[in-house]
Amino acid sequence: MTRQSHDQFAKEYLEELLTPLGTIKKSEKVKSEVQEIDVWFEPFSDQNQENLPLGLLGKMAKTQCLFEPFRNPPSEIEIRSCLLKLYAVHGDVVRKAKRENRNIAESDLPILWILTPTFSSRMIVGLGAVEIAEDWVQGVYFLPNILKTAIVVIHQLPENEDTLWLRVLGKGGTQKRAVEELTELPENNPFRENLLEILADWRKNLELRDNLSRDEEEVIMNLSPAYLQQIEEWKQEGKQEGKEEERFSLITSLLEGRFGTLDAELSGLVEKIANIPISERTQLLLSLGNLSREELLQRLRNEAV
């Protein structure tokens, strides 16, 4: 998967979550080079974060910060590039304070949060990063204080409600389980609907590409529950016509991904699968990779009994 594709999704996703808490400085570029900051966030001074169920992400966003999400573990060069952007921002903040004749405290300078699915122990040691277990959770590593930088290793986070929003940015099974948890959130959750739409859009955009990589195919499967849930809700709310056709198209593409070109017998399964209740349909489609043709046919015969 291209870095650009993941960056765009991660920006939209984080901005949706953080907007109620403060200001997103979109498309900010540092002056030392033309380098765009993924997400630069400044919290509202009077924001009561206790009212928003953001868990660990909310704790990270209590002070001004930069977010740099990675789809794959960043290299040494990419880490240094992130630090360069952070300190260029610090320079801008200090210069602005001088122009306004006001002092600036160390605590007023943004912290950098690097988000990565995995990270090697060699890199952690090389950066001098340590976990602060009493204040944070497993998987959050802080570089020496003077550097104002932390690394969140998403696959090391405990799998609970507090870490859900960050785990969606993981890979493989971690992301798959997080997306399933997101679809099961109560409908009155303030983020659920818009995030499902963002995830569904990302999946749809990936599916339209030619020559998908293995990583992109994995993401499509991981996002399928969100996509199916979104289509179902659109259907129930009557927001869009033609969503039933889109659901058929999704099921067809998943079957083709597993069995190749569909013959008449497999093509006839599309409508049957589309009419299965959403929860059962999602589980069936997610298990396609482990089912043979005969096992799938038998499952659907059992559904019809």
Walk me through the structure.
This protein is α+β, with helices and mostly antiparallel strands and 305 residues long. The protein folds into 2 domains: 3-167, no CATH class; 172-304, no CATH class. Helix content is 51%, strand content 11%. The protein is built from 13 helices and 9 strands. The longest helix is centred in the first third of the chain and has 24 residues, at 76-99. The chain is elongated. The model has no long low-confidence stretch (mean pLDDT 83).
Question: What is this structure, in a nutshell?
Answer:
The chain is of the alpha+beta class. The protein has helices spanning 3-18, 55-60, 76-99, 121-126, 164-167, 172-183, 192-207, 214-237, 243-259, 264-267, 269-274, 278-286, 293-304, and strands at residues 22-24, 29-30, 35-36, 39-43, 65-69, 111-116, 130-131, 140-142, 149-153. It has two domains: 3-167, no CATH class; 172-304, no CATH class.
Q: What is the radius of gyration computed over CA atoms, rounded to a whole number of angstroms?
A: 22 Å
Helical residues, percent: 40-55%
Oligomer: single chain
Tell me the fraction of residues in β-strands, as a range.
Answer: 5-15%
**Element-by-element helix/strand order:** HEEEEHEHEHEEEHHHHHHHHH
Shape label: elongated
**Mean pLDDT, rounded to whole units?**
83
Number of strands: 9
Order of strands side by side in the largest beta sheet? 1-4-5-6-9-8-7
Continuous helix count: 13
Overall structural class, as computed from helix and strand content, comes to: alpha+beta
- Tell me the span between the first and last alpha carbons: 42 Å
